[in-house]
Amino acid sequence: MLTKVPFLKKISPIPFALYKNKVCIFEYEINDTIFLNTISEKLWDRNTSKTVNILKLSSDIVAATKFSVNDAEYMFAVTEEEQSRLDKQLINMQKYVEIGVDFLKSDKMTSDLINLPQNLNRRNIENNFNQDFKMYNIENKFQLEEIAMHELVRGNKQNVQILFNKIINLSNTPLSKDKLTSQKYRIIILLTLVSRTCIRKNCPVGITLRLTDKLTIQLDRIQSSDDIQLFIEHIAVEYYSLLKNNAKNYNSKCINDAVEFINVNIYKPINNDTISDYLDMNPSYLSSLFKHETGTPLRTFIINKKVSESKYLLRNTSMSINAIASALNFSNQSHFSKSFKERTGFTPKYYQDVVNSK
């Protein structure tokens, strides 16, 4: 089954599940057995091939319909967190269901469906992945990178090591006449991709970039291609630990999107209005929801992130305090110093001097 991930992933742009005889045989970005079983219990018996049924589970919306392939019954369901524009959301989800079923019933997918397992064995997924993936020939590097980032976010460390190694050694035009140099170039590209993924998953920018810088320095010291394999495994472990210890996910997708926007745009002028415009939300509603979800007012959260980033700059660059305040778009140096001291107990100057004296 896992060898078909790249194809099945394309069925829907939002999380989905595929059922056969009431049992889930494939899921994408749901990974919650109780939730998957609830969908089956609530929708299987009332579903027909001519209708798309809607189910509300807590803050999530599920849309599903049944279809048949070679006398076997299947149900395809998509799920998404309930949004403010519910009417438009339901129309889109119905469209995803209809398109997904059409794809699954196509000649291209019919034989694959018949060969899928009768149930989703989560215990064996990780064990089977390594051997299955080695047998699967992916020539699309972008597709391979997408799968690698997905596995990294899900915390499948061993799978990520295999995927990273395959990305580095995928047969492409050499970037250098020297094999080792070519491998190093590809690893630097991979580091950039992974760091951006971590930032989008709400890892602090400073911590993420510092780790990437550290790994780049270590990479530069490698003198033999024989050491590349171990270094790739090291990369997977380091970023896995970064995500595990720093990434935060909130219940609402819009809040996760807001935090991602703050992380990515930390060096730009950002406030409640710029974020609400980006998310197409009412500023007051966003502010209230953000405080409820995170426990921190949105404006305070932004300043906390900027101060955290300034600590990285004070530790790792020769930038002046005024330059850091300007780069992070504080109104002036005084505002930066006051915000910094409120959160750390030290002035930026004292913090910088203490760090540099060690």
UniProtKB/TrEMBL annotation:
InterPro entries with a match to the protein in the record: Homeodomain-like_sf (IPR009057), HTH_AraC (IPR018060), HTH_AraC-typ_CS (IPR018062)
Sections of the chain in a coiled coil: none
Domain HTH araC/xylS-type: 256-354
Alphabetized SUPFAM superfamilies for the sequence: Homeodomain-like
Gene3D superfamilies: Homeodomain-like
Keywords: DNA-binding, Transcription, Transcription regulation
Keyword DNA-binding: yes
Name this protein carries in UniProt: Helix-turn-helix domain-containing protein
Biological source species: Companilactobacillus baiquanensis
